[in-house]
Write a structure and sequence with these properties.
alpha+beta; 37% helix; 21% strand
Length: 391
């Protein structure tokens, strides 16, 4: 089975939206700007690394690249059987699964970033990665430091993040080295996230969470707080209200996903942090990423190969590398241009029809193998319109 994963804060980089500007999925940026009340395109294209270190900027920017990548893989027919996100990425997962609509997702991520920025400014904190030490020994190091320092992220075997007051993080890091850690690396963040230092942010964010409508997910979503799969709607109110002050149990989530039958993980968003953690945690699984349009063909080719594990094809979509789905760019009534296109070769940019007043064109050259929407059918945005075999 395929699981989509979504990265959190720290994966961002300057100009990370530039690869997507000419892609049809970039249209989401205008909608996000309206929902957020700010220019999201500027964040993705013009903000420098210093700007993106600010939590209020990095979270919204990272979320948006994940949403663009999700829309892009959906347009070519790649589907998932589950979702999981790391910290901020949990919000991406909830939007992707249909638990929260896109507009509310932008609103929540914006509020989360602001709340965490203010909390970090109110109480100085930092984070550090402890490498090469078992989880229980990292926990022991925090206890022996005897101060405000806690485990914040269980990322992968031998990779745990601690957070808290700067002096206490330094003290716990020293103890961790004495206990056998190979390396303790300070992280360039401006707060002690996923610790009690985020209590004020949790309280502020909970007001926005309580006003949000939650729906049943299309597929299970694995939560940071308990690493468990959730298939209900209202349980997410408590989970999100707890997330900011609870450790991210990512390694445990990956183990649970593997136990539940997932064999392929596709990271959607900037960077490849989660791709790396999956490789360390589940070495027998396939780990792929999409953070630019150029990655999509590589993922299609990988999914077209033999299944990672025995037992039949992957649940989710594993299209042949030569096949593509043309999807609707808008919601409305579909009207084909010419039914005689079926079975014929077409160039990239060929007009296939209209959805309302919006043109439906194929991004690829190839042969039209079939129409998946009929004349007069009301379709939604991103709904498959035609099946095309590329040259």
């Amino acid at each position: 089975m395929i699981c989509f994963t979504y990265p959190g804060q720290g994966s961002q980089k300057a100009g990370m939206g530039s690869a997507w500007v000419d892609h049809p999925s970039w249209e989401l940026v205008a909608e996000a700007s309206e929902a957020a009340g700010r220019d999201v395109g500027q964040l993705l294209l013009d903000a420098d690394d210093d700007d993106l270190r600010h939590t209020r900027n990095s979270q919204l920017a990272t979320f948006m690249v994940s949403m663009i990548a999700l829309d892009a893989v959906t347009r070519v027919g790649i589907e998932t059987a589950g979702h999981a996100g790391h910290s901020l990425g949990e919000y991406s997962a909830l939007v992707a699964a249909g638990v929260v609509d896109f507009y509310d997702g932008v609103r929540l991520v914006s509020e989360r970033g602001e709340a965490m920025q203010v909390a970090a400014e109110e109480q100085e904190g930092t984070m550090a990665a402890v490498m090469g030490l078992d989880d229980d020994l990292v926990e022991q190091a925090c206890e022996q430091a005897d101060g405000d320092v806690w485990v914040a992220n269980y990322n992968a075997p031998g990779q745990v993040v601690i957070a808290g007051a700067p002096s206490m993080v330094e003290a716990a890091g020293t103890i961790a080295k004495d206990l056998g850690a190979k390396r303790v690396m300070a992280l360039p963040v401006g707060g002690a996230f996923h610790t009690p230092f985020m209590a004020s942010a949790r309280d502020r964010l909970s007001k926005a969470v309580d006003k949000t409508e939650f729906r049943v997910p299309d597929h299970p979503v694995y939560a940071n707080v308990d690493a468990a799969a959730h298939t209900g709607a209202h349980t997410w109110i408590d989970l999100l209200n707890s997330q900011l002050t609870s450790p991210v149990r990512w390694r445990q989530s990956v183990h649970n996903m593997c136990d539940d039958g997932f064999t392929t993980f596709v990271e959607l968003g900037p960077g490849a942090v989660l791709t790396g953690t999956v490789k360390r945690t589940a070495k027998d699984c396939q780990s792929l990423k999409v953070n630019a349009p150029a990655d999509i063909d590589a993922v299609l080719e990988a999914l077209a190969g033999p299944p990672v594990a025995a037992g039949g094809p992957l649940e989710g979509e594993a299209l042949f590398a030569t096949e593509r789905l043309v999807v609707s760019p808008a919601a409305g009534v579909f009207q084909p241009t010419d039914d005689n296109l079926l079975g014929s070769g077409v160039p990239a940019g060929q007009l296939l029809g209209h959805v309302g007043d919006t043109e439906v064109r194929t991004p690829w050259a190839g042969v039209i193998m079939g129409f998946l929407a009929v004349d007069g059918e009301r379709v939604t945005a991103s709904q498959p319109i035609a099946w095309l075999r590329t040259n």
